[in-house]
Amino acid sequence: MLCTIINNITRRDCEHMPQDFFGRIIYLLSRYGMSFFNGALQTMNIALVGTIFGCIIGFAVGVVQTIPVSKNDSLVKRILYSIVSFLLNAYVEIFRGTPMMVQAMFIYYGSSALFNINMSMMFAAYFIVSINTGAYMAETVRGGVLSIDPGQEEGAKAIGMTHVQTMIYVILPQALRNIMPQIGNNLIINIKDTCVLSIIGIVELFFASKGVAGTYYTYFEAFTITMVIYFILTFTCSRILRVFENRMDGPDSYDLATTDTLAYTSGMVRFPDPKNNKEDK
Fold first, then answer.
1. Which residues are within 8 A (CB) of 136 and not within 5 positions of it... i.e. 6 or more apart?
2. Coil, strand, or helix at residue 266?
3. Complete DSSP assignment for 165-232
4. Is 153 within 8 Å of 166 (Cβ atoms)?
5. Which regions span the lipid bilayer (predicted)?
6. How many CA atoms lie within 13 A of 82 on its CB side?
7. Which tens digit of pLDDT belongs to each residue from 14-64?
8. DSSP character for 120?
9. CA-CA distance, 181 to 177, in Å (whole number)?
10. How confident is the model at residue 233 (pLDDT cuts 50, 70, 90)?
11. Which of left, alpha, beta for 250 (phi over 0: left; psi -120 to 50: alpha)?
C-alpha cells in the first residue's frame, strides 16, 4: 500500500516536471536544493576536518622520518628508530597504495568484526580521511624538510639548538611555505574523494545527489548540479589558499632588521621584479 502511494506521488510529480534540460535543473533545485546544500556542507565538513588532522599526522610522521641517526648513536636508539621507521614506512606505503574506498570498507566493517569496535559513521569518515591524508602528507613533509639548505640545520646546531628546536623554529617554518601548495591539493582531493564514503552510508553530496537522481531518473540533470557544486567548492578553496600563499611570501621590499647600531643600514632591500627583467631583455 505504501509503495503504491509513493509511486502515485512520484508519477504526479513527474507529470509536472518540465521537459527541457534547464527547466528540470531549476525544478530539482527548487524541490531538493536543501538536500544538495546539506550534502555540500557535509562534504566540506569531512574534507576540512580530515585535512587538518591529516596534516598533523603527516607533520609528525614526516619529522620522525627525518631524525638523523648515525653509527655513533647508541645501539638501543638505532634499533628503536629502525622499528619506528619500518612501521611508519609501512603505514605510508599501505595507505598510499590502496584506494580510499577499500580503506573505508576495511576499517569501518573490519574494526567491528576483528576488534568489536563499533564506530559511528561520522567518526569513521573523519578517521579514514585523516589517516589517508596523513600518509600523503608524510612524504610531502619529508620532502619539504629535505629541500631546506643543510646549512640552516648546521647553523642552528652551531648555536646550541637541539634537533626538536631546529625543526620547530628553523626548518618547519621554511618547509611549510614550500609544501603549502600540496596542502591545498590535498584539501581539494579530499573534497572530491569524500564521495567514496557513501559506501559506508555517509550522506554527503554524492549520496544526496544519487537520492535526488533516483527519484525522477534525472541522473544527467542531478549530477550536472553536483558537478557544478563540486567545482564551486574546489575553486573557492583553491583561491583562498592562493591568498594564504601570497601572504606567506611577504612583501618584495622590506627593511633590514639588526640590533647592531654600528651595522645598521638605512634604506630598503628590494628583490628584482622578474617581469621587469624580461622586459629589459
1. 54, 58, 96, 186
2. coil
3. HHIIIIIHHHHHHHHHHHHHHHHHHHHHHGGGGGGGT---HHHHHHHHHHHHT-HHHHHHHHHHHHHH
4. yes
5. 46-67, 79-95, 107-129, 219-241
6. 9
7. 556 777 788 888 888 889 899 999 999 999 999 999 999 999 999 888 888
8. -
9. 8
10. very high
11. left
Is residue 61 a contact partner of residue 138, using CB atoms and an 8 Å limit?
Answer: yes
Instruction: Name the pLDDT band for 5 (thresholds 50, 70, 90).
Output: very low
Contact 255, 273 (CB under 8 A): no
User: 58: number of CA atoms within 13 Å, CB side?
Assistant: 32
> Whose grid coordinates read 573490519?
110
Of the candidates 102, 113, 108, 99, which has an alpha carbon nearest to the alpha carbon of residue 127? 108
Cβ neighbourhood burial of 31 (10 Å; 0-12, 13-18, 19+): middle
Asked if 178 and 147 count as a contact pair (C-beta separation under 8 A), the reply is: yes
Q: Which residues are CB-neighbours of 278 under 8 A, at least 6 positions away?
A: none
DSSP label of 164 = H
Q: Are 46 and 200 spatial neighbours (Cβ–Cβ below 8 Å)?
A: no
Secondary structure letter of residue 17 according to DSSP: S
Superfamily of structural domain 22-280: MetI-like (1.10.3720.10)
Cβ-based neighbour number of residue 78 at 10 Å: 14
Phi, psi dihedrals of residue 61, rounded to the nearest 5°:
-65, -45
More confident: 11 or 62: 62
Q: Is 279 left (phi over 0), alpha (psi -120 to 50) or beta?
A: alpha
